[in-house]
TrEMBL record:
Domain Pseudouridine synthase RsuA/RluA-like: 52-215
SUPFAM superfamilies xref list: Pseudouridine synthase
Protein name in the entry: RNA pseudouridylate synthase domain-containing protein 3
Pfam family, one: PseudoU_synth_2
GO molecular function: pseudouridine synthase activity; RNA binding
Length: 308
């Protein structure tokens, strides 16, 4: 069975008023050490660790950049582990440099364990199962209490940056060339308050920024999504999807009432982190969970959304 590590007090830099303060390697390392939520030792395989990654820290980065991967040797020493650690799975793992998701990251010191777990996740998805469960706070509420979002996704150049965009009816050739990938996310509304919602998201496929794009297609972008939320417009309070060419990327726009409930000014909006959290992974040994980070819980309380 997985052994749960007792929770530690949240570090002071996690409070909402300092969401976007940049951390150095030493501070980030201390945060990661205190974020270990599960630890299990396999005598023949090595250690399997799970930590809850904060938003803003990429799992993998370019040489010289601060990332989880770059801190693993130091983290191994801090945790007194004899073997080197590597990443098995984490939030939006397929997006190598994606830093905005928070939540579970699996680390292992044995490549046999890593391969076994990755095969387990792949076969689970092929069997129609959903091994990963996310929580998201959204601006807007889906029309249906539960359902699925299914669409093709691809990378598309928009000006000087590449964007993930939906392709509603991808052709066979584009799928065969892997220019487009069919994606699927199952969702369920857990609670609603004041025009916002707490959603459970279970992706059956893995594509960079899949959850953000799927939420915009539901016309309820994730809170703190400063990349895709601009695609959702409103006329007389009714949301609709804007064409890509008329929806340039910008800081998410929130109305005055919502800003007041969050305790933010328009100038502080760019500091608002993405509210998507990888909360649970189903492993062969059982489910593994990580509670939402302090800023996520603070937002739930501010909006009057039950934690569920």
């Amino acid at each position: 069975m997985l052994r749960e590590v007792p929770p530690v007090s949240p570090p002071s830099h996690s409070v909402p008023c300092r969401w976007r303060r940049l951390l150095g390697p030493k501070e980030t390392l201390r945060l990661l050490e205190g974020s270990v939520v599960h630890r299990e030792d396999f005598p023949s395989l090595g250690a399997l660790l799970a930590l809850s990654k904060p938003p803003g820290l990429p799992i993998l980065g370019r040489p010289g950049d601060l990332s989880l991967d770059s801190l693993l040797p130091a983290l191994r020493r801090r945790l007194s582990l004899s073997a080197e650690l590597h990443v098995v799975k984490g939030p939006a793992r397929c997006a190598m440099s994606h830093r905005e998701y928070s939540g579970l990251v699996l680390l292992s010191s044995c490549y046999h364990t890593t391969k076994k777990l990755q095969q387990f996740f792949t076969s689970a998805r092929r069997r129609g199962q959903y091994p990963a469960t996310y929580r998201a706070i959204t601006v807007g509420v889906p029309a249906e209490v539960e359902g699925e979002v299914s669409t093709g996704l691809c990378w598309q150049q928009q000006g000087d940056r590449a964007m993930v965009v939906p392709v509603p009816d991808p052709g066979r050739r584009s799928l065969a060339r892997k220019d487009v990938k069919n994606t699927l996310t199952r969702y369920r509304v857990l609670s609603v308050a004041g025009g916002c919602a707490l959603l459970q998201l279970q992706p059956r496929t893995a594509f960079p920024e899949q959850l953000q794009v799927h939420l915009t297609l539901l016309l309820c972008p994730a809170l703190g999504d400063h990349k895709h939320s601009s695609r959702v417009g409103r006329v007389l309070g009714v949301p609709f999807c804007l064409p890509l060419e008329t929806a340039p990327t910008h800081t998410q726009v929130l109305d005055e009432e919502l800003l007041s409930r969050l305790g933010l000014s328009p100038r502080q909006l760019h500091r608002l982190p993405l509210h998507i959290h990888l909360q649970e992974l189903v492993l062969p040994e059982g489910p593994l969970c990580a509670p939402p980070p302090p800023y996520f819980l603070h937002t739930l309380h501010s909006l009057g959304l039950p934690e569920h």
